[in-house]
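Hi everyone,

Forwarding the result from last night's run.
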Amino acid sequence: MFYQIAVGRLLPSSLLGATKLQPIIRTCRKAELRVLANQRDRLIRSKHKQAKSVMQVGVVIFGILAVLTILTSDAPPIVIVTFWCIVGFLMSLYVSTSERREISQKIREFDHAIELGQAEEYKIVSCRFWELEEMQGEVPSYAFELPSCQVVFFTGQAFYPAANFPSLDFSFIIVRDSKGETLEMFLDKRGPKSFPDRCLTGQEHGDLLIPEELSVMEGRLEEVFEKIKVETAHLMKSRYGK
C-alpha cells in the first residue's frame, strides 16, 4: 500500500513497484519475553481493578441521575432510587463484562506470543537516510538507503527520535498475535545516533504518495523520490484530474 501521509489517500503498492522487506524469523530474546510478560501482568492487574472502577463511576453517574429525578418528579423517592439502582447495576455490569472480555482476549494473545516465543526481525544496515519532516497529525517517517542500492521506508510511532535513534544500524522487531496482527514492537539500536543527509520539508513531501513502512524500492534516494514524484503526479492526474 501507499499512502499520502497528510491526507491518508490509499493506493495499490504495485503502482510504484515496491516490495516488502523480508524479516528474519527468530526466537524471542529474554529481554523481549520479559517485556511481553510485563505487559501481560499489567493487563491482569487492570482486569482485577476494572470492575471496581466501573462500579464506582456508575454509582456517581446514576446517583446524580437519581437525585435529579427526585427533584423533578412526583414519584416516591424509594421508587426512583430503586429504579436507578437497577438500571445503574445492569449498565455497569454490561460495560464491565464487555471490557473484561476484551482484556481477557488480549491476555490470551500475550500468553500465545510468550508460549510461541517467535519474533520477526528486520535488520537495517544503511549508508545514509532522509527524514520526512512531521506535519500536523503525522508520525515520523524515514527513508534508509541500503548498500544494495535499495531504499527502505519506515513510518510509525515507534520511530520517534531518541538518544540513539535514528541510526544507520538497527533492527525493527515485531511480535505478532495469533491473528498475525502486531502485538508488540521493539527497536534494537546498535549504532550511534545519525543525522539525515536531507530533511524533506512538509512542503516538499506533503503531496507525495509515500510507501508504507517496510516497503522497499530499487535505486538511490534521489532516484526513488524522483520516481515517487513522477508517479504521484501521474496518478493524481489520471485518478482525480489534478
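Residues 30-72 form the longest helix (43 residues).

Cheers,
N.
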